[in-house]
TrEMBL record:
Any single Gene Ontology cellular-component annotation: plasma membrane
Localization annotation: Cell membrane
Membrane topology according to the record: Multi-pass membrane protein
Transmembrane segments: 16-36, 48-71, 92-114, 126-150, 162-182, 247-267, 312-336
Protein name: Phosphatidylglycerol lysyltransferase
Keyword annotations of the record: Cell membrane, Membrane, Transmembrane, Transmembrane helix
Length: 355
């Protein structure tokens, strides 16, 4: 059973507008609140060269992420072009930027990988399993920066509560994932329940029950195989994922260092990176498209102690241009080009992965 996701331009355009409006509104509020609450004149001066370095860091993060996928696909005994790997990354950035809780990145990446020659199950296992490694890599960075570099981050109030909420939510998701891996019959029962529910309450829906069951079983078999490959049979690919994820994180976190430098503020890069690590757990809990609003408020609350009060507004604006609007534009152009492509690019398979 083949499934082709449909992307309606009008809906996507509305989501882009929602995300941008919320982000801009929050930045205007931050700028006006911090810059004008003491009736001081805000200092809007900044240097261009450090901002270019920050943009190059963002591009470097895309390349590290694309290299991770480019290498990991070979664990399934397949090969894709680096261009397709980069497209999957940029598409994920774009869809994450316009969907609540940033949940659109995974399906977008699966879509591009599916067009590049992977089955839906293989693409799904790669995205989900590597999503686990995404969080594990962030946890490793926290451990390294706390115990090796002695970085202390004081999260208080709502930020600390959100971090606890994420820990609970992620623990539940991990438990369900491993439970289904060892008890797939439970998932198949849930599939039957879902089919019966749709038939009872949505009688106009037309679909083949046998095809749905066959697709779920095929998808989950591929998913279990992919999980086994990365964690048991070919752990070297797991190591590659952890390495490139950490390099990606560091590249993105360094954007704030260069933005501070552009404002004439010098903070040690280790400290700049360390204080951002916990925030990335919190960003994924924001219900707004692309976490807009929450991201700006969170980053402002953390970096306001490193900038003068009247400069936090311009810092947030410059940082968000590089980390949000730049990927949004580049990723959006790439995503629509990918959707409009007529045929997927498929390379000859390498040696088959061990079953």
């Amino acid at each position: 059973m083949k499934i082709k996701p449909t992307f309606e331009k009008n809906k996507i355009t509305k989501k882009i507008c929602y995300s941008i409006v919320i982000s801009l509104g929050t930045m205007v509020f931050i700028f006006s609140y911090f810059s004008y609450r003491e009736t001081t004149v805000p200092d809007l001066s900044f240097k261009i060269i450090p901002l270019i370095a920050g943009a190059l860091c963002m591009i470097g993060a895309w390349i590290f992420d694309a290299l991770r996928i480019f290498i990991t696909v070979r664990a399934w005994g397949k090969a894709i072009l680096f261009r397709d790997s980069l497209r999957s990354v940029l598409s994920a950035y774009f869809m994450s930027s316009i969907t609540p809780f940033m949940i659109g990145g995974g399906p977008a990446q699966m879509y591009v990988l599916g067009r590049s020659g992977l089955t839906w199950g293989e693409a799904g296992s790669l995205v989900v399993v590597c999503g686990i490694l995404y969080q594990v890599s962030l946890l490793l960075l926290i451990v390294v920066f706390i115990f090796l570099f002695d970085i202390r981050v004081a999260l208080q109030g709502i930020l600390l509560k959100l971090l606890y909420t994420f820990a609970i939510f992620y623990s539940i998701i991990m438990f369900l994932l491993f439970y289904f891996l060892y008890r797939p019959q439970v998932l198949y029962r849930l599939t039957n329940w879902g089919i019966n529910f749709v038939k009872r309450y949505f009688r106009k829906a037309k679909f083949s029950e046998a095809a749905v069951r066959a697709w779920v079983e095929e998808f989950f078999d591929d998913f279990r195989r992919g999980f086994s490959i990365l964690f048991l049979k070919k752990p070297q690919y797991l190591a590659w994922n952890l390495l490139f994820y950490n390099l990606r994180y560091i590249a993105i976190f360094m954007v704030a260092f260069w933005v501070l430098w552009s404002l004439g503020i010098l903070v040690h890069p280790i400290k700049v990176i360390g204080i951002q690590i916990p925030l990335n757990y919190i960003f994924s809990l924001m219900p707004t498209p692309g976490s807009s609003g929450g991201v700006e408020a969170s980053i402002a609350s953390v970096f306001v102690s490193y900038t003068a009060v009247q400069r936090i507004g311009i810092f947030v604006i410059l940082w968000r241009i590089i980390t949000f609007y730049f990927p949004l534009i580049v990723g959006g152009i790439n995503f629509f080009q990918t959707v409009l492509k007529s045929k997927p690019t498929i390379l000859p398979e390498t040696n088959k992965a061990s079953e």
